[in-house]
Amino acid sequence: GMLSCVVFQNPESFMVWVHFHAPQKYQSCSGDLGPADEYSARVDIEVDCPGPSHVIRSVPLRARSGTARVHAPKDLQNVNLSAALGQSSTQTLPLKNAGNIDVHVLTILVLPSGPQYEVVLKGQVVPEEGVNPAAPGPVSALGMLPHSEVPPILSNKQFVAWGGVTLGRAVQQKLVLRNNSPNTTHHLRLLIRGQDHSCFQLQSSFGQEERLTRHRELSIRPREDVVVHLLFAPTRVACTLSKLEIKQSGVRPSQPGIKFTIPLSGYGGTSNIILEDHRKRSDGYVAMLMGVAAGQVSKLCVCVRNTGCRAAFIKAVPYSDLHTRSVMDSSDISLSPSQFVLKERTQEVGHMTCCGQKGGSGLIWTT
């Protein structure tokens, strides 16, 4: 829940801004800071399609969260400058960063009504001679509690994404929670929160009755796995975001408890591709160009229509044999366009030109 993406889009390209939100952490003004907290994540780029998706590229992300403590020597807390008329006086003000992160573009304001000066300061923590720097310690889920107090609850998924789902339909996914403790039973409370929480629900079974709720409580025995069923039912054509919060229940009133968060995302609406006047197969449409003779040029036009409410990515692949998936030589076939994005409720005419070679028997075109 510390990273968020903002997308600015036009027909040709889009830009993604990734924002890092450092978690709130109580820190004494004079206590030992210790090392800065390190965070890592990644952005996976993949094509959203009905079948198994493949990651096109991954972009690693790293961030550091800490505290900057910039101060001047005590004897220079008050700086007195004096100069004769027409002359200038300078005073060097050494600054020290006693924090655990670097400081860039430090702003110094001359009070009460003087101008503002900006000074680029790059600070680094330098341990004193004979003093060993503090060793990095484990970081807990909230960044405030010792590692030993964090319940060992594991999940097989860091996030749950549905992709596109047809309006009026509901699609179920599941995640597995494991209590990795060898001897402690943990009592958990599950709650769906977020701007689109009404589109996501927890599905529970009680005998023959199935119940859909936004919250649920469960107990996980030591080394036990529990399956959590989640349902996504979009109500509009838009990207929907929420999160599943997992908190301890039954803790002492003085303890806030640990909260784990699993992001939920899905998209309302799907595309529906039709090749007019052509046969449909389970894995796409097929347009057959028969009677290709050696030394002759054969042409075929195919009208591709998107009757859905979401844009679709279309790719035309020429095969010489559909059963063996043998792709034709690019020198024998010309497709225009070979791949494109077809917006909702629009159509595109694809042109196919084949130059017959010796031994050519036919062409199969799939989308």
From TrEMBL:
Residues 9-68, 71-105, 275-354 form the Cep192-like domain. PANTHER family: CENTROSOMAL PROTEIN OF 192 KDA. This is Centrosomal protein 192kDa. It comes from Oncorhynchus kisutch. Pfam families: Cep192_D2 (PF22064), Cep192_D3 (PF22067), Cep192_D4 (PF22073), Cep192_D5 (PF22074). Transmembrane segments: none annotated. InterPro entries: Cep192-like_D2, Cep192-like_D3, Cep192-like_D5, Cep192_Spd-2-like_dom, Spd-2/CEP192. GO terms for molecular function: protein kinase binding. GO terms for cellular component: centriole; cytoplasm; pericentriolar material.
